[in-house]
Design goal:
heterodimer; A: 5-stranded parallel beta sheet; 8 helices; B: 144 residues; alpha/beta; 5-stranded parallel beta sheet; 5 strands
């Protein structure tokens, strides 16, 4: 594990952050717990290669501002999530000070809120912004055929288990990069989207809805792969695997997190989970060398 | 007489979308779910143009195009690949197999129809379905 895949949790002994520690562990981070800011500072001064500090208000009642200033001196790139207890003075979030945390969350922490903040701050470790943008852009481009879709909230990391929708399609890919794309919809959303793509077809059978999910997965993956192809990374992908499993979860222990995005159009939601098992980060820095076709473009051979 | 177009795609959604577009323009449409069925349909009905996906179970689109081109009656028939695969190298494979155009999904209906007209204009309309043994090779003049 690289040295910067470490997270420091500053929490008094009341265990308010124990669930976070478990989840960070699942995401593949080494989690170090310290009970006080003084102990945290000592650790950071000795080992400044940290990804993230999560500090609970219970441990930060005294000396918070001074702590933040010292951390920024020693480890300017570390991201900080700070718990704000309504009864205690929190460090000023004013950006001008340079000593503000990256995320200031009220305590007691709400699991979803904290999970979202952690994902946002750590996603870059697994899915550089260029890839994250390619995934979101591909989905918006394909779903743009029935206009009005937008990315709902932020993208987030999924540790090692996924809640499945009513209808899901998975397409594995391999080559210069390997992994899979999964697209999931509820039956109602699939029905509504099918009517948007192909008006007037009624009733819409389950296999047809499933087919829509598979085709979306296929087309979106094609656009994501184009991003890599432009950088001379060759990828092969196959046909979709379909899963009908409302309320079930898919677990894959021991692998790195996947990248999840939800797209929304009115009440209709399309869930994407993109997983990269490996890729060469250096390729992302390389200039675009290969021309790929744009959506709908015709190339005469 | 209307042009007859064979659509080969494992997605029923794509086939239905294409069927709606092409029939609205007056074309006759025949569908197949994979390359093997596509070959069978093409032998059964002499079609004026083929639109085929690449990623399909049983037999993929590239292989189907190779096999189609081995048939005398399909030596010059326009074949379009309609796929989500944007890689130029794959398009080159399509060219080598004998495809005439590489189109990225999802395609706009009007753009597709213009490409079909461009490919078929001057080739004449299709003949009625007949057994392969009795098929007369179509007019090979006109743009591919």
């Amino acid at each position: 594990m690289s040295a910067d895949k470490q997270v420091l949790v500053v929490d008094s002994a009341n265990g308010a952050l124990s669930f976070v520690m478990e989840e960070l562990n699942d995401l593949g981070f080494r989690v170090i717990w310290v009970p006080t800011l003084a102990a945290a500072l000592e650790f950071i001064e000795a080992r400044p290669s940290l990804s993230l500090i999560v500090a609970s208000a219970s441990a930060t009642k005294i000396g918070g501002l001074e702590f933040l200033a010292r951390v920024r001196d020693f480890a300017p790139d570390v991201r900080i999530i700070w718990g704000a207890n309504p009864d205690a003075p929190a460090p000023s979030p004013a950006p001008a000070s340079g000593n503000s945390p990256d995320s200031l969350l009220p305590e007691p922490f709400r699991k979803d809120e904290l999970r979202g903040a952690i994902s946002e701050l750590l996603a870059e470790h697994f899915y550089p912004r260029a890839i994250a943008d390619a995934v979101k852009g591909a989905a918006l481009e394909v779903l743009g055929a029935v206009s009005g879709f937008e990315v709902e909230g932020g993208a987030f990391l999924v540790a090692n288990q996924t809640a499945l929708s009513d209808l899901s399609a998975v397409i594995p890919f391999a080559g210069g990069v390997s992994g899979h794309l999964m697209v999931g919809l509820t039956k109602d959303d699939a029905r509504s989207l099918y009517q948007a793509f192909l008006p007037g077809v009624l009733p819409i059978r389950l296999d047809r809805m499933e087919d829509l999910v598979g085709e979306l997965c296929n087309q979106i993956l094609g656009r994501i792969n184009a991003f890599f192809t432009e950088r001379s990374v060759s990828i092969q992908h196959g046909t979709p695997i379909f899963i009908r499993a409302a309320g079930s979860t898919l677990r894959y222990p021991g692998r790195q997190p996947s990248f999840a995005v939800t797209l929304k159009r009115g009440e209709t939601r399309v869930a994407l989970e993109y997983y990269l098992a490996h890729f060469d980060r250096a390729k992302l820095q390389a200039p675009v060398t290969t021309r790929v076709l744009k959506l709908g473009e015709i190339r005469y051979l | 007489m209307a042009w007859t177009i064979l659509i080969v795609d494992d997605s029923s959604l794509v086939r239905s979308q294409l069927r709606a577009t092409l029939e609205a323009k007056g074309a006759r449409v025949i569908e197949a779910e994979n390359g093997t069925e596509g070959l069978w349909r093409a032998r059964e009905n002499l079609v004026d143009l083929v639109i085929a996906d690449i990623h399909m179970p049983v037999m993929d689109g590239i292989r189907m195009v190779e096999e189609l081109r081995k048939l005398e009656e399909y030596a010059t028939t326009p074949i379009f690949i309609l796929t989500s695969d944007a890689a130029s190298s794959r398009a080159e494979e399509g060219k080598k197999a004998g495809a005439n155009a590489w189109i990225l999904k999802p395609v706009k209906n009007e753009m597709l129809w213009k490409a079909i007209e461009k490919a078929l204009f001057g080739r004449g309309s299709s003949m009625p379905a007949m057994p392969v043994a009795a098929v007369v090779p179509p007019n090979s003049s006109g743009p591919k």
